[in-house]
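retry 2 of 3: previous attempt timed out while embedding adenosine-5'-triphosphate. Reduced batch size to 1 and resubmitted. Inputs unchanged:
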Amino acid sequence: MYVAVDDTDSSTWMCTTFLATELIRTLDDLDLIGFPRLVRLNPAVPWKTRGNGALCIRVGKGCGDRQYIGSIAGRKIFCYSDLESEPDIDDVFSRCIDLVKEWSQTDHADPGLVVCRDDVDASLYDKAVHRIISKEEALSYLEGKDHRVFQINKGRGVIGASASISWKPGDYTYEVLAYRERSKWGTPRHVNAEDVRQLDELFPSTFNNYDEGLSKPAIVPNTSCPILYGVRGDSFEDLLKAREFIRSEEVERWLIYLSNQGTDDHIIEDYHSLEPNSSYAVEGTVASIPVTVAGGHVILTIDAGEKLECAAYEPSKGFRNVIRALRPGDLVKVFGELREEPRTLNIEKLQVVSLSSFKIKVANPKCSVCGRIMKSVGAGQGYRCRDCGTKSNDVLMAEEPRTISIGWYEPPVCSRRHLSKPLKRCNFED
Ligand code: ATP
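retry 2 succeeded.
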């Protein structure tokens, strides 16, 4: 039996993952089948609170392999590889409704709860991670299935909840989330920054841990939500060890989730046209020298069938220098979300496929009569020899030494998207 929730929190209170832990705590007579799932959906959805994450657990009588994956309210949490039997759907549904009501921020959110006995077609996830879809379309995927839906306000969370059930992991990662004691919610967090800095070296299968440029852990949220930290990685065994390694304030509960974070699942590679509110990998030729605009953002214009403006924003810090180093004629592949207004591709990652030979002026022209170096007459008016008055426009050009190489570039850890695949996870030999 799948139980999925979304859109229960606000930017200032709670977190839908915490509700997932409460569902597990309350449904303690049932086993977890597989890992709880933290499924990120289209990051370009305008009405998302933070990272457009939906949560799905599967419960029933478990059998097969048993894995230790967390601790909630002093109880060890295990999940099972296989389902032996399904629980009563109405019993599960009514118990979950009470929790959704209890933990939802109903004046700011549009909570949705979906309980479904059957699998949901994976094409729903495919749409929800790439495009904007309606609630009606999401609900149409549940037709004919043994399911129950509960919603509050507009109930838009039903979209994410249904989509999280339909996720059939191709590429996947894990995240261990550690939660704070209730009395600490909203107060400054205490997590040993040096321990976090060492995670990449000690547990190489983890990623997005520490931002060297900002000298700051990236695993600790800034909001007042119940999460203390979250470590992401490819191996749940390493996440178990990493959690034990990190010294911090008291961890009230923790849980390992299976996730599509860090997979690039949101990127559309094959497209007919570039529609806003989706994310793409766009190959194109740099059309002009990148410019830095007010606020320190860098705008790159590429020719990709249409002239497309791509932006590296100020928070991406040193990554902007990579963009600034590009020159007309360079061939690049830009990954990012296409905004509606202004129509700009927000750069999440970039491949420099080939470099052009770009010429720059190295000296004023030499006088062809007397050999003297000419002087500029004025902006756009050419050059003149001071001795004999000869005029010329033939400045000396030479190939600009390039400060960028062919290869892949990504923003620093703190300005990465949840879904963006870090270069650390990319197998370039393939
Ligand atoms: P948090 O990260 O704190 O859990 P959030 O960023 O997930 O919050 P929500 O408050 O859950 O934000 O809002 C996202 C809303 O967008 C939900 O109602 C979800 O159902 C809906 N949604 C998700 N994907 C899509 C999509 N592809 N098209 C339309 N709506 C979507």
